[in-house]
Amino acid sequence: MAGVAGTIFSLGAVYVIAGLVLVCFAILTVADRRHPRRWGPGAFWCVLGIVFIFGSVLPHWVSGLLVIVMVALDGAGQVRAGLAADRGAARPHGASRPGNQIFLPVVAIPMVTFAFALTFRALGMDANRGALVGLGYGSLAAMALVLRLTGSTPRELMAEGRRLNELMGPVNILPQLLASLGVIFTAARLGDPIASGIVRLVPADHLFLFVVANCLSMTVLTMVLGNSFAAFPVIAAGVLVPLIIQPFGADPAAVAILTLSVGASGTLMTPMAANFNLVPVALLGMKSEYGVIRAQLPFAVALWTIHVVLMWSIIRFVR
Prior knowledge:
Largest sheet: none
Mean pLDDT: 84
Number of helices: 15
Number of domains: 3
Strand content: under 5%
Helix content: over 70%
Low-confidence stretches: none
Order of helices and strands: HHHHHHHHHHHHHHH
Shape: globular
Structural class: mainly alpha
Number of strands: 0
Distance between the termini: 55 Å
């Protein structure tokens, strides 16, 4: 019994559930005869669903080929939204307005996630993995609450999910691809050549310029990867530790958290952070593809400047 429970409440089970939802989206897309290019998006989301469902058992080269198929479909312009993306779901006849209860599904996701993390920790298991599992089951709980509050059917739920998914398009999977790229960069020790370039340009023992170089490299790499968590290991190992922590005796905890958070300024300025900067454009129907980035640019520059001054001050005056 414990083995069955462990399988159900595992990260692999969450991946399978996510894959099944994607396959459902693919089936609905192919079944939509009004879709101008239903086979392209259908194939794209079906392949992604297969990767989620069988990724743990497929050979790595097969998973790689499937990713290449997805890139080819999108590169050929086959993954486009259909008419369903322009139509919102109609409220079921006779259904009452949920009022403030509509926020319950949103609140349910973090609550279930937190509960799973605490449970995993209490059982001596990895709390981070528990949070990921909880995020998956929290989403299922939110789906159930939505059905209860709106009186909709599971088919309507999937149709609306498919609509939003098509509206956002392939940028939905950009965070996963960029996170993988961050792992590759870390394994390739990309931080070493970055540090070598900084040492050649910055005079020895010039703390402020080293801080500027650290924050700038973190911001630029975050803009490339679209994710500060993916960029941090590269910059921390190649730049922060050898050029700032070791020679200047800086507090590792303080400068590490500032290096991580300064990457947020890069996140605000890059289309690679699709879930932050491109998805809202699609959902809100904005005319300018980079309207969100332009609005955030002044705040990003101010955030970066404050981080540089704060990090330099902590290292220089707080020992």
